[in-house]
TrEMBL record:
The chain crosses the membrane at residues 20-50, 62-82. This is DUF4190 domain-containing protein. Keywords: Membrane, Transmembrane, Transmembrane helix. Residues 21-79 form the DUF4190 domain. It holds the Pfam family DUF4190. It comes from the Bacteria. PANTHER family: MEMBRANE PROTEIN, SMALL HYDROPHOBIC PROTEIN-RELATED.
């Protein structure tokens, strides 16, 4: 039985995936402030947490994604409490 050397590309690929998750978390959190905050908020929180767990190089974006995801969920709760609706309403 021959032993093989561990692959050097595996950690780099995992880190690249984590960087992509951090950026996706930020983008989903940002979009979630305006559209579909019930869906995009929790997704941003999960992706940001996974990116941090996989040691992303874009730690700031992952943290911003988590913060924006939390803001999305808080906004959803406020809209449900005040308007009994999940939609923004501009004007009278």
């Amino acid at each position: 039985m021959a032993l093989t050397a561990p692959s050097r590309t595996a950690p780099l690929r995992a880190r690249g995936d984590a960087d992509g998750m951090a950026v996706a978390s930020f983008v989903l959190g940002l979009i979630g402030l305006l559209l579909f905050n019930a869906v995009f908020g929790p997704c941003a929180i999960v992706l940001g947490t996974l990116a941090l767990a996989r040691e992303t190089r874009r730690r700031g974006r992952a943290l911003l994604g988590i913060a924006l995801g939390i803001a999305d969920v808080v906004l959803l709760i406020v809209l449900l409490t005040l308007n009994h609706s999940v939609f923004w309403q501009f004007g009278g």
